[in-house]
Structures are given as C-alpha cells and as structure tokens.
C-alpha cells in the first residue's frame, strides 16, 4: 500500500541522516549515492515519480561553453564540480572535529556539491593536471586566489564556463 509521497525537503533530510550514520560509523563507501540523492532532493531535480532527474542535472548545473556547443549527452561528462573525494574528506574532517549535526553536514554539502557538464576532452585536461579527484593549490589556503573557489579546477586548465555560482 502506497502512502502519501514524501516531500523533497523531507527526502533531503533523510539523505542527510544516511550520511550522518555513515560518518558516525566510519564508512564512506556509499557517499556518492547519498550525496547525489541529497543534491537532487534539495534542488528538486525530480521526475514525476519523485526520483532523481539526471538529465536535468546535466544541463541545469555548471556547463562549459564547449559542452553547451556540443549539446550531445554522449559527448559530455557529468561530474562533481568539487570532486566527491574532496567533499567526502571535508565531511570526515567535520566528523573528526565533532561536527556531525544535520545542519553541519548540510552546510558542507550545500557549499561544495554542484554538478558540472564538460566535454570528454576537458575531462582529460583535468585528469592530465591531476585535478580529476582534487582541488588546485590554494583552494584551502585563506588569502589565495583559489581559496574556496569551487570553479578553480576549471580555471586552472582553461575550461570556460557559462555561469558562476
């Protein structure tokens, strides 16, 4: 028997609780699923059945100029603007500092979790620069031009983007 649909805000809270449980128990292997689901529920990227609507995420987030020109899903890559490894590290650091409240987790996710769409060639440039799973030098250094700039990976390898966050 189906009940009433769960509102997106409540679904987002459920995903935060999953992340909290994973952190408290020292597990990070399921973070991609929970982080991505949180993003979709929080930003209401949902289909009519309440599931994630990934195609809307692909073209609705940060999109490189080159990817937009292609407009062909098979020629582009959907990725985390800040790599999931970095997001996970920030969540683990918060846990180690005793900050595992839902609001602390949400603050990290809301600040760092965004999706980008780039071409396969641009993705290769990130990999070649060692930035496919890392942020560039200065991202964590106050006073540095890259400090806290979630788009700095793209700038470092010359990826032109359509919008700023």
Structure description:
With 165 residues, the protein is mainly alpha-helical. The chain has one domain. The chain is 48% helix and 7% strand. The chain has 8 helices and 3 strands; from the N terminus they run αααβαβααβαα. A 3-stranded mixed beta sheet has the order 1-3-2. The mean pLDDT is 94.
Shape summary: globular
Number of H- or I-type helical stretches = 8
Mean of the pLDDT scores?
A: 94
Strand content: 5-15%
- What percentage of residues falls in helices of 4 or more residues? 40-55%
Rg (CA only): 17 Å
State the strand order across the main sheet.
1-3-2
Uncertain runs are: none
The major pleated sheet works out as: 3 strands, mixed
Termini Cα gap: 42 Å
Q: How many discrete structural domains?
A: 1
Sum up the structure in keywords.
8 helices; 48% helix; 165 residues; three-stranded mixed sheet; globular; mainly alpha
Brief overview, please?
Helices cover 48% and strands 7% of the residues.
What is the strand and helix layout of this fold?
Blueprint lengths: L7 H17 L6 H12 L11 H7 L1 E2 L1 H6 L5 E5 L3 H13 L5 H11 L2 E5 H9 L23 H5 L9
Helix pairs in contact: 1-2, 5-6
């Amino acid at each position: 028997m189906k009940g009433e649909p769960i509102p997106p805000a409540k679904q987002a809270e459920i995903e935060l609780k999953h992340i909290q449980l994973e952190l408290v128990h020292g597990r990070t292997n399921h973070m991609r699923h929970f982080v991505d689901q949180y993003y979709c529920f929080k930003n209401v990227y949902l289909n009519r059945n309440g599931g994630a609507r990934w195609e809307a995420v692909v073209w609705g987030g940060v999109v490189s100029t080159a990817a937009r020109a292609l407009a062909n899903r098979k020629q582009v890559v959907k990725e985390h603007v800040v790599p999931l490894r970095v997001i996970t590290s920030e969540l683990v650091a918060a846990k180690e500092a005793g900050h595992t409240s839902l609001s602390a987790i949400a603050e990290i996710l809301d600040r760092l979790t965004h999706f980008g769409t780039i071409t396969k060639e641009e993705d290769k440039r990130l990999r070649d620069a060692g930035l496919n799973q890392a942020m560039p030098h200065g991202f964590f250094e106050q006073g540095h031009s890259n400090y806290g700039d979630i788009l700095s990976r793209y700038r470092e390898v010359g990826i032109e983007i359509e919008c700023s966050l």
